[in-house]
Amino acid sequence: MKKKTLCLLLVFVLTMGLTATLSFADDIGNGDASTYSTAGVVFATKRNSDTKASASVDVQFTAKADDYVVAIVLQKKTSSGWVTATDVSNSVHYYRGSNKYSILTYDTWTVKKGVVYRIKCVSTDSYDNGLSFTDRTYSDPF
Q: What is the pTM (predicted TM-score) of this model?
């Protein structure tokens, strides 16, 4: 019984050591997936009036994105959940580019009185090494 317990303890200790080693390798940025992705998205939304709304979205990448596409989608709240506000003109805006660490967008909409909206940001950043990441982030309702 002691031999079995000792073997299990040894396997546990070795597994934990291997996990810590792999985590450290990811942290030093050795070119794997942990080095690249969307680092953060910050929203600044404003309901300017009953029928006007605006939003600024700041998307930060963890490295210089070789190519990126950012979609800013105006969504409205319905009884069944959040849906794209297709009844609002230009409810989806796309921003494409390359060789950037971040992108700052600003969009305005003529919205409907009494409807609650939010922004859905879908950012895809791609790198020459073949890695590509997609991140979905949502603003607070306004």
A: 0.74
